[in-house]
Specification:
By secondary structure, this protein is α/β, with parallel strands linked by helices. The protein is about 45% helix and about 15% strand. Helix 3 crosses helix 11.
Length: about 350
């Protein structure tokens, strides 16, 4: 168990020309999906190419998918995606909201870890796609003397296209290290009591300040192809459990909350119901004129929440006759959320740091 750290020193009995080694530390590496560096065509193309070339995300055979991606999709999509990102871009910091929020989360978690463990731990963040890359941050941690690294994908629910590909990239980064640190990966925290409590508190605050109580809460999760569920991906089941636990904590009946899936891409069937269609059905067929939407699969607001939910999905609801649409932001750097993430980290550091 790690009890102390110190300046770089030469190992005992080592020759005088042996390089000094930094004192042992534990690295805590938070990982999120990623972000383009800017909203221009080439920045968007680089980002989308990395993202859509990942076979965890699009698992079609490369010989079939890559010509379509390179010759058609990446010719057009950077323009539309860049426009969408520009509508939510943090102009002051010249970065995406996801990056701004992830930086804030990391800084506040680092403060909590420092208060508990001192300088024995190093907290940082990386992105699966874009910058800062997972490889660069692993290299920095190793250089800083982190002989152990706790890798924490910031996805409450596990999916092959999110948690697994983040883990893949982390282990690829370890493959490049001559002296690999010991590594742990944090389990999904979709049912952790403190995460559910943080979600519930955010819902209660939003309902308390609403002009009128929403008729229903729609929990919109990022979608994946239905085929992934049939092939063994647990994501759908974990999303359903998060909604159930949230409903039980709020003390609601089943008519007051719904689970839907957004961000469908490509021709095949994805997990249903689709959020964009379900909100319209709720307004048109069920007479739900005031709905609230939250996004429990996202640890930070991003393009899928700020642009897709707050614009596209909202528009679908209103065009179907809906009158009041309330988007409840992600937990972001809310104190209860950071307390939950910190507790998950502490539980996973067992035996590594006292």
């Amino acid at each position: 168990m790690l009890d102390a750290t110190g300046p770089a020193t030469r190992p005992d009995h080592a020759p005088s020309d042996h390089p000094k080694l930094p004192g042992d530390r534990v690295g805590i590496l938070l990982a999120n999906l990623g972000t383009p560096d800017d909203t221009d065509y080439w920045s968007m193309r680089r980002y989308l190419n990395e993202f859509l070339s990942d076979q965890r995300v699009i698992d079609y055979p490369r010989w079939k998918w890559q010509p379509l991606l390179q010759l058609i999709i990446l010719t057009k999509r950077p323009f539309s995606s860049g426009k969408a990102y520009k509508s939510i871009w943090n102009e002051e910091a010249n970065e995406s909201p996801l990056l701004t929020i992830t930086k804030a989360q990391t800084a506040k978690i680092a403060q909590r870890m420092a208060e508990r463990y001192g300088d024995r731990v190093k907290v940082d963040y990386c992105m699966r796609y874009g910058n800062p890359s997972t490889k660069s941050k692993v290299q920095e941690m190793v250089a800083a003397g982190c002989r152990k690294i706790l890798f924490f994908p910031l996805y409450p629910q596990y999916a092959g296209a999110t948690s697994a590909t983040a883990n893949d990239q982390f282990f690829r980064a370890l493959m490049a290290e001559k002296w690999q640190p010991t590594a742990r990966v944090v389990d999904p925290y979709f049912s952790h009591p403190m995460y559910i409590e943080a979600l519930a508190q955010s819902i209660e605050r939003a309902y308390a300040t609403a002009d009128a109580r929403p008729d229903i809460l729609v929990c919109s999760y990022h979608g994946v192809p239905k085929r992934y569920l049939l092939e063994g991906d647990p994501y759908h089941c974990q999303c359903q459990k998060t909604t159930r636990l949230l409903r039980e904590r709020l003390g609601w009946d089943e008519s007051q909350i719904a689970t839907t899936f957004q961000s469908r891409f490509g021709p095949e069937e994805w997990l249903k119901p689709y959020t964009v269609e379900e909100v319209a059905r709720l307004a048109r067929e069920d007479g739900k004129k005031h709905i609230a939407v939250c996004a429990p699969a996202f640890s930070a607001d991003c393009i899928e929440t700020l642009e897709e939910i707050n614009e596209e999905i909202k528009e679908s609801f209103e065009e179907a006759g809906g009158e009041w649409f309330t988007y409840i932001p992600c937990l972001n750097d809310d104190a209860a959320h950071l307390d939950a993430l910190s507790r998950v980290i502490e539980e996973n550091l067992g035996g590594w740091v006292s």
